[in-house]
Amino acid sequence: MAQTPSFAQDLAWRLEALAFDVATGLARLFPIDAVSDFGAWLFRTLGPRTSARRVAERNLRIAFPDAPDEEIARLLTAQWEELGRWIAEFPILDRIAADPARVEVEGAERLAEIAAGAGPVVFISGHFSAFEVMAAAIVRAGVPCQITYRAMNNPHVDARVRKNRVRYGVRLFAPKGLEGARELMRALSRGESVALMNDQKFNGGVAAPLFGVMAHTAPGPSTFALRFGVPLQPMSVQRVGPGARFKVIVHPPIRLADTGDRDADIEAGVRRVNAFIEERVRARPSEWFWVHKRWPAEVYRRT
Predict the structure, then answer these.
(1) Which of 13, 198, 215, 261 has a CA-to-CA distance to 255 between 20 and 30 Å?
(2) pLDDT tens-digit series, residues 13-43
(3) With bands split at pLDDT 50, 70 and 90, how would you rate the model's confidence at 1?
């Protein structure tokens, strides 16, 4: 049972929600690219002054231990700009997703196959660029899909985020605990696909290498794929600018081997998921979400 928040906590949440409403209202008054450019400028200016700067720098040094200081500094600036663009673009993502000139889908025929009955699949991806665009592409292709997300701590802001996503056709499911996992399995049993983000730290998950360092990773996607005999379907998104223009890429499916040793097969699947994430990050490092702690605490103590 959820605890009732204190008066002070609820007031803080409501003020945050008010700030969200004001920012959303302002963003929707201006042209798309102007909003995106403003976000890049704002975070390029303020990001280095926040505590998240240290996390992003540590992550970059873990991932690229041989990179010179100049390259780390360049990537830090670039990732602040990308993060700022994504946050500024979120309130107007319905306008972006509705413009065919702004969103290209490479591999659209694969989504069409899944929608036509070649599914279900377990979609996997990471927090690349404006990652919300991928969910919009799945929905617009007509794929029946449970698109998962982590509910925000502030319930008032969470309600607004969900409402904003409905504008571009995405209804989200926030699985919690065992019952959430069961609902995803029921969806797969009904022939629906499920979509999960796979690049966040998952305490108690399977340890698998990411940039040569062991990272705890959620086993859910591999578990579901093996249980239902369906493929993992990787997707990614790239900014192809200038401004808010994107390419959504539907990569070749990953079919996991079922040897009968379920634990070993799940671990092998997790390793393949992490390998996909790492490959995409190496290709476009400035577009990953570097401001979260992806590796175990002891790794950060060594950096």
Answers:
(1) 215
(2) 999 999 999 999 999 999 999 999 999 999 9
(3) low
Q: Does any domain span residue 124? A: yes
Closest CA to 223 of 278, 158, 273: 273
Residue 114 within a domain: yes
Q: What is the pLDDT of residues 85-125, one digit of tens each?
A: 999 999 999 999 999 999 999 999 999 999 999 989 999 99
Contact 260, 266 (CB under 8 A): no
CATH number at residue 47: 3.40.1130
Burial class (CB in 10 A: 0-12, 13-18, 19+), 263: exposed
The number of helices, as runs of H, and strands, as runs of E, in the chain is 12, 9
Tally the domains of the chain: 1
- Whose tokens are 């690229």? That residue is 64
pTM summary value = 0.94
List, in sequence order, every residue forming a beta bridge with 207; answer none if it has no partner. 216
Does residue 269 lie in a domain region? yes
Return the exposure string of 228-246: e unless at least 16 CB atoms fall within 10 Å of the residue's CB, then b. eebbbbbbbbbbeeebbbb
Beta-bridge partner residues of 246: 103, 239
Q: Which pLDDT score is estimated for 140? A: 94
Structure tokens at 102: 């702004």
What the block records as the tokens of 226 is 């093996």
What would the 3-class secondary structure string for 202-260 be? CCCCEEEEECCEEEEECCHHHHHHHHHCCCEEEEEEEECCCCCCEEEEECCCECCCCCC
Kind and range of the H or E element at 16? helix 7-27
Please indicate, yes or no, if residue 180 is contained in any of the structural domains. Answer: yes
Q: Is the model's pLDDT at 303 over the cut of 80?
A: no
Report the pLDDT averaged over residues 132-157. Answer: 93
Helices 32-46/69-89 angle, 10° precision: 140
Question: Domain range spanning residue 257?
Answer: 7-301
